[in-house]
Automatic annotation (TrEMBL):
Its EC number is 5.4.99.-. Keywords: Isomerase, RNA-binding. It comes from Companilactobacillus halodurans. GO terms for molecular function: catalytic activity, acting on RNA; pseudouridine synthase activity; RNA binding. GO terms for biological process: enzyme-directed rRNA pseudouridine synthesis. Responsible for synthesis of pseudouridine from uracil. NCBIfam families: rluA_subfam. It catalyses: a uridine in RNA = a pseudouridine in RNA. The active site is at residue 138. This is Pseudouridine synthase. The lineage of its organism: Bacteria, Bacillati, Bacillota, Bacilli, Lactobacillales. Residues 91-242 form the Pseudouridine synthase RsuA/RluA-like domain. Belongs to the pseudouridine synthase RluA family. InterPro entries: PsdUridine_synth_cat_dom_sf, PsdUridine_synth_RluA-like_CS, PsdUridine_synth_RluC/D, PsdUridine_synth_RsuA/RluA, RluA_PseudoU_synthase.
Length: 308
C-alpha cells in the first residue's frame, strides 16, 4: 500500500473484503468519511477504472482512493508565530508546545493558541489547513502535541490513541518523595461538583483512569517522576498525583499552594512512541525539558539559581 496525502493506493489481498465499501470499513474508514467520499468529490478507481462502493474486487486488483478535498473551518483563525516542529510528514505534524499557550481557542476569545499557529504554518506551506488535533495539553503543560493533516489520518490515530501503539510519557516535578518509588495509580476520575473546570477522584461516577509512574530522581523535599498515561482523562496526571499526596510543583489549582520557584505546573510531555498509522514505522519522538523545569530541578538539588 502506497499513499500520498489525498491519494490512497491499495493492492487487494486474499484476506481483504472484496466489496469496496466493506474493504474501506475494514481499513478504518468511518461512516462520515465514506459519506464524504461518496458525496463530496471523492473518487474510487479499480485497475484505473472508476468504480462505485458496491463493486466487487478480486485479489491482485489495484484500488486507488482519491479523498475529497477538505474545507477548513473559519472558527480557527490563522495566527503567525514560531512553532517548534519535532516531526512532520504528509500525514502528521508533531510540535513542541511551550507553557502558557492553550491547545485550542476558547469560545469568544481571539487569543493565540497552538491551533492558530499550526493553521498559519500549514497555509504558508500551501497545505490543507484544516485543524485535526489528536492530542491536547493544558495551557501550562509543555511538550509534544500531535496534529493530523487529514481527517483519515486523524481517524486512524484516534483508533490507536489509548493503546500501546500510541504511548505518551511525561516528566513531572512533585512535592515529596513518592513511596513506593514506582507504581500504578488506578483511581477513577470525574468532574468536580464544586468546580466544573476541575476534576476529582470519584469512585461512584468517575471513569477508569490509570497512570504508571517511576521515580527518576529524588531531592530533599521533592522528586522527578516519569509517567505513562494508560488512559486519557482531563487533568489525569495532576489529579492522580494530588490523590496520592504528591501534587505537581506549581500546580496551585490542585495543590492549593503558590510556588514562587515556577509559575506553572512542572509537567512536560517529553516522549511519544507512535506506530505510524500509515507507514507502520515506529516513531520515537522526544522534546527536551524546558528551561523553567531545568532551572527548578537545579534549585531542588540545592544548586544556586538552579545552576552548579
Amino acid at each position: 500500500m502506497r499513499r500520498s496525502n489525498r491519494f490512497l493506493k491499495f493492492t487487494i489481498g486474499k484476506n481483504d473484503k472484496p466489496v469496496i465499501r466493506k474493504f474501506l470499513v475494514q481499513h478504518k474508514f468511518s461512516s462520515s468519511q465514506l459519506h464524504n467520499l461518496k458525496n463530496k468529490g471523492g473518487l474510487i478507481f479499480v485497475n484505473h477504472k472508476k468504480r462505485h462502493f458496491n463493486f466487487k474486487m478480486k485479489p491482485g486488483d489495484e484500488l486507488l482512493v482519491v479523498l475529497n478535498a477538505e474545507e477548513p473551518s473559519d472558527l480557527i483563525k490563522p495566527m503567525k508565530g514560531k512553532i517548534d516542529v519535532i516531526y512532520e510528514d504528509n500525514y502528521l505534524l508533531v510540535v513542541n508546545k511551550p507553557p502558557g499557550i492553550a491547545s485550542l481557542p476558547a469560545k469568544a476569545k481571539d487569543t493565540q493558541t497552538m491551533a492558530n499557529l499550526v493553521k498559519a504554518y500549514l497555509i504558508d506551506k500551501n497545505e490543507n489547513s484544516s485543524i485535526h488535533l489528536v492530542t491536547r495539553l493544558d495551557r501550562d503543560t509543555s511538550g509534544l502535541m500531535v496534529f493530523a493533516k487529514t481527517s483519515y489520518a486523524h481517524s486512524l490515530l484516534d483508533q490507536i490513541l489509548h493503546t500501546e501503539n500510541f504511548q505518551k510519557y511525561y516528566l513531572a516535578l512533585v512535592y515529596g518523595q513518592v513511596q513506593p518509588p514506582n507504581g500504578l495509580v488506578d483511581l477513577p476520575i470525574g468532574i468536580d461538583s464544586k468546580a466544573f473546570y476541575m476534576r476529582t477522584i470519584d469512585h461512584s461516577k468517575g471513569k477508569e483512569s490509570k497512570t504508571l509512574y517511576k521515580t527518576i530522581e529524588n531531592y530533599p523535599q521533592a522528586s522527578l517522576l516519569k509517567l505513562k498515561l494508560l488512559t486519557g482523562r482531563t487533568h489525569q496526571i495532576r489529579v492522580h498525583l494530588t490523590a496520592i499526596g504528591h501534587p505537581i510543583i506549581g500546580d496551585d489549582m490542585y495543590s492549593k499552594v503558590r510556588d514562587s520557584r515556577i509559575n506553572r505546573q512542572a509537567l512536560h510531555c517529553y516522549r511519544l512512541n507512535i506506530v505510524h498509522p500509515v507507514t507502520k514505522v515506529l516513531l520515537k519522538l522526544k522534546a527536551p525539558l524546558p528551561k523553567d523545569m531545568v532551572m527548578l530541578k537545579g534549585v531542588l538539588r540545592g544548586e544556586k539559581n538552579g545552576r552548579k
